[in-house]
Amino acid sequence: RDTQTIHCPAAPAGVIDGSRADVSFIAGLITDKFCYHQPLYRQHQRLGDNGIRVSRPWLTQLTHAALALLEPVFTAQLDSIRASRIKAMDETPIKAGRAGPGKMKGGYFWPVYGERDEICFAYHEGRSGKHIAQTLGTDPPPEGAVLLTDGYAAYERYAQKCGLTRAQCWAHSRRKFFEAQSIEPERATQALEMIGQLYAVEQHIREAQL
Asked: How many domains does the chain have?
């Protein structure tokens, strides 16, 4: 029945209490920033170009609030990786934060990968070996635990201290044999062929989804 009244239903519950931003806006904000490297000031400009007037500090506050919501997910995933019998780890430099006018501070991502296909990107300011323990922990590893890494010596020290086996990445090991072809072509070629056979087995495992 037409009552000649205007009804204003309540807004759907948001993921951030009291915020006017819904989950799709927040998801788009952090996806554009962290997956597609769109700084907040550029997103602010794009919103303005489309007639959406918001403040840049508000976008920053939303980003911090969204990351706080995701932190328990990161922690749970990292705990799962730590409990994995086989895990892989690496370190890679990035630029993060301002060091001064026109300069960025250096830092490192320490990505870790678990046996359930989990991956976490832990951030630390340096490449010191202590960050390995800070990321993976110091609890006794599962029986038969293996840590797959490159040749950085700090990984070997961590493995010996924690009582696990360190396996070197075949891609890094293969590079040395490839470089040795000019010195020992016969032996280096034989090693490369053997590594190729291992790669073929891995390819079969992936294709067969074993």
From this structure: 3
